Amino acid sequence: MSNEKPIIILDRDGVINYDSDQYIKTLDEWQPIPGSIKSIAALSKAGFQVYVATNQSGVARGYYTIDTLNKMHAKMQQLVEDEGGTFAGIHYCPHGPDDNCSCRKPKAGMIETIEQELGVNFNTTPAIMVGDSKRDLEAGIARGCKVVLVLTGKGRDTQYKNMDFHFNVFTDLAAFTLETLFKYQ
């Protein structure tokens, strides 16, 4: 077993910040789940490259603008930087479910973009996709990532969905981080 540190890819809503069926539409509505910011910083400081890959169909639906989305991501980045960490990259799909794009999860376009940026293939370079929905995990599986379900966000419902692939389950991003830091120290 290789001890090479995997690339970490995180979904956003429901993994890093609280999710809402009414969408996270404003900077004030974007609130981190306790422990998530410190977890991302800890992974970063330990040498993991941490990416975000997030569907943001609220842009296509007109609930918020790209400018508002960028402000949410700037807030998220600043909170992680305040804890001494950094993101390797943040990728989002602004399209709606009927736009037939290649980036909206469960399609793997955002993950493929990360592979291209790094010049790697996740079938041979270790990567972990952490999400709270079936489509997060399906996107990761499509690109050869190990997949992890967190029980925050939609995770408690997702864990009972029929999936024909193996995934690990953690209560939240902090629990995943503790295990990962221990495993790859």
TrEMBL record:
One of its GO terms (molecular function) is D-glycero-beta-D-manno-heptose 1,7-bisphosphate 7-phosphatase activity. Pfam families: Hydrolase_like (PF13242). Its EC number is 3.1.3.-. Keywords: Carbohydrate metabolism, Cytoplasm, Hydrolase, Metal-binding. InterPro entries: HAD-like_sf (IPR036412), HAD-SF_hydro_IIIA (IPR006549), HAD_sf (IPR023214), Heptose_bisP_phosphatase (IPR004446), Histidinol-phos (IPR006543). The keyword Cell cycle does not apply. SUPFAM superfamilies: HAD-like. It comes from the Bacteria. It is found in: Cytoplasm. PANTHER family: D-GLYCERO-BETA-D-MANNO-HEPTOSE-1,7-BISPHOSPHATE 7-PHOSPHATASE (PTHR42891). Belongs to the gmhB family. This is D,D-heptose 1,7-bisphosphate phosphatase.
